[in-house]
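To the wet lab folks,

You asked to see what we're planning to order before we commit. Fair enough. Below is the target structure as tokens, and below that is the sequence we designed to fit it. If anything looks off to you, flag it before the synthesis order goes out.
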């Protein structure tokens, strides 16, 4: 198994787009009005987790 990937809690996400603009891998997409992690691209850098203003993103490794 690889590193745990970032996950977005859809109930918390406000669709502000902040995480999408900071992801170095373009692994975050807006999908159905909420951010979504394309896990194959995510390198578990945690930048998005620190960026989200409402703490909607989590990852087991961080
Ligand atoms: S952990 Fe890093 S690579 Fe993965 S979605 Fe967040 S910003 Fe992108
Ligand atoms: S930064 Fe947080 S609230 Fe904004 S789109 Fe990403 S997950 Fe949603």
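Sequence we intend to order:
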């Amino acid at each position: 198994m690889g590193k745990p990937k970032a996950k977005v809690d859809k109930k918390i996400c406000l669709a502000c787009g902040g995480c999408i603009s900071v992801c170095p891998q373009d692994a975050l997409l807006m999908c159905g009005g909420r951010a979504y992690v394309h896990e194959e691209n995510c390198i578990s850098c945690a930048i998005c987790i620190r960026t989200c203003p409402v703490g909607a993103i989590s990852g087991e490794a961080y």
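Structural context that might help your review: Residues 6, 23, 25, 27-28, 37, 42-48 surround iron/sulfur cluster (ligand 1) (CB under 6 Å). The two ends are 16 Å apart (CA to CA).

Thanks,
Computational group
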